[in-house]
C-alpha cells in the first residue's frame, strides 16, 4: 500500500464570491466536514498553497504513481474566454484541442431530459399530457446489456459530464449497462463546449445559477424515494457536481417533510467527478484517476476542492475512495474506456469481500497472504 501526496497539483484560482455567498456556503457545510484552511473561508475553487495533508492524500495507489507537473493558472471566474491566451492555457491544463473548447453542437433543448434506449423525454415534457400523470423512471425503456443478461432488477440513473453530446451519452449509458448488468437511464447534462461547461461548473460548485440537469435529477430522486424505491446513481465529471448539488436539495426537501431517513436508500458512484463535497446519508464510492486533471483539481482528492467532504452514510460510515493510475491529460478522464475498466460491483467496493468461513471456529481474511 503506497501513500501518495499531491505535491504539485494543477492550480486554478478563482476570485472569492460575495460575502453572502460565503455565509451560505458555511451554513451548508456538514457539521463533521473537514475544517477550512487557517486563512479563513475561501472560494470553492480556491488554489491552496499546499496540497499536502489528509485532505489531498490518496491512501492507495499503484506503486510508483506520479503526479503531473502544475499547468498554467487560469482564473475561471474572471477569465476572458475570448482571449486566445486564456484558451491556450485551458488547452494546456486539460490537454484538449482548442477546437473542442467552444460549443460544437446544439443539444440545449435536451438539457435535463430523461434518456432511454427507446426515447428521450425533454424536461418540459416530463409533466405528462392531458389525462396522463407525470412521466416516471419506469415509463422509459433503459439501456440493457448487449448480451441480454440482466444481473439485477435495479435501474441505474446516470448523469454525464462536461463536453458530452446526447449521442456520446447514449454510448456511455450502453457501456454502463454492459459493465453493471443493469438497466440504465440517463439524465442529460447538455454541453455548451468545454469552456461553457467549466463556467457552469463554477456555478454548481458555489450552488449558484440554474442547472436543468440538477433540477431533473433532484425531481427524479425525490419521486423514486417517495415511491419507496432504492436509488442507484452513477456520475462522471461535471455529473458528480450535478449529483452533489441535486442530492443536497433532495436532503433539504426530505428534512422539511421529516423524511430524512430516506437518504439511506441512495447509493452513488462517481468517476473523475468535479465535486469534492457530498451531503451525508447516501452510500458513496468515488473513483479517482490520479492522472485525471479534472478530479485532481476539483474532486474529493482535488487540490482546489473546498472543504473536501466525500460524504458518509446514515450509519456514519465514510465514503470509499478508489484511486488508480492510467493515461494522462484529458485521455485519463475518459469514462467508457478508463473509468469503467476500473469499476467494481458497488456492494463489493463499498462493503469489501467480507469474511470467508474456512472453519466453524475460525475466520480468515481472503486477501491475507502467508
TrEMBL record:
Name this protein carries in UniProt: Uncharacterized protein
Chain spans, region Disordered: 1-39
Biased composition annotated in UniProt, kind: Low complexity: 21-38
Top-level taxonomic group: Bacteria
InterPro entries: AB_hydrolase_fold
Amino acid at each position: 500500500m503506497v501513500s501518495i501526496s499531491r505535491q504539485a497539483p494543477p492550480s486554478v484560482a478563482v476570485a472569492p464570491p460575495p460575502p453572502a455567498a460565503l455565509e451560505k456556503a458555511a451554513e451548508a457545510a456538514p457539521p463533521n466536514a473537514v475544517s477550512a484552511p487557517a486563512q479563513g473561508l475561501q472560494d470553492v475553487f480556491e488554489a491552496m498553497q499546499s496540497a499536502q495533508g489528509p485532505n489531498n492524500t490518496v491512501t492507495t495507489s499503484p506503486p510508483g504513481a506520479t503526479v503531473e507537473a502544475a499547468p498554467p493558472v487560469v482564473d475561471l471566474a474572471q477569465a476572458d474566454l475570448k482571449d486566445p491566451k486564456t484558451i491556450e492555457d485551458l488547452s494546456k491544463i486539460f490537454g484538449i484541442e482548442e477546437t473542442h473548447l467552444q460549443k460544437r453542437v446544439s443539444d440545449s433543448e435536451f438539457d435535463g431530459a430523461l434518456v432511454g434506449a427507446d426515447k428521450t423525454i425533454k424536461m418540459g415534457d416530463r409533466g405528462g399530457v392531458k389525462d396522463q400523470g407525470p412521466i416516471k423512471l419506469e415509463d422509459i425503456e433503459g439501456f440493457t446489456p448487449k448480451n441480454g443478461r440482466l444481473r439485477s432488477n435495479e435501474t441505474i440513473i446516470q448523469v454525464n459530464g462536461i463536453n458530452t453530446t446526447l449521442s456520446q451519452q447514449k454510448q456511455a449509458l450502453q457501456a454502463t449497462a454492459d459493465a453493471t448488468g443493469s438497466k440504465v437511464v440517463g439524465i442529460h447534462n447538455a454541453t455548451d463546449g468545454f469552456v461553457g461547461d467549466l463556467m457552469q461548473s463554477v456555478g454548481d460548485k458555489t450552488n449558484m445559477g440554474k442547472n436543468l440537469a440538477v433540477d431533473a435529477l433532484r425531481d427524479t430522486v425525490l419521486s423514486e424515494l417517495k415511491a419507496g424505491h432504492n436509488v442507484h446513481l452513477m456520475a462522471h465529471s461535471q455529473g458528480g457536481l450535478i449529483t452533489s448539488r441535486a442530492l443536497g436539495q433532495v436532503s433539504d426537501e426530505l428534512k422539511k417533510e421529516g423524511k430524512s431517513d430516506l437518504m439511506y436508500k441512495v447509493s452513488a458512484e462517481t468517476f473523475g467527478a468535479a465535486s469534492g463535497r457530498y451531503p451525508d446519508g447516501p452510500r458513496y464510492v468515488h473513483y479517482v484517476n490520479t492522472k485525471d486533471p479534472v478530479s485532481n483539481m476539483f474532486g474529493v482528492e482535488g487540490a482546489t476542492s473546498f472543504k473536501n467532504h466525500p460524504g458518509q452514510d446514515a450509519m456514519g460510515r465514510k465514503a470509499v475512495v478508489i484511486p488508480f493510475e492510467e493515461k494522462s491529460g484529458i485521455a485519463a478522464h475518459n469514462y467508457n474506456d478508463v473509468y469503467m475498466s476500473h469499476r467494481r460491483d458497488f456492494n463489493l467496493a463499498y462493503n469489501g469481500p467480507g469474511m470467508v468461513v474456512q472453519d466453524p471456529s475460525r475466520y480468515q481474511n481472503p486477501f491475507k497472504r502467508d
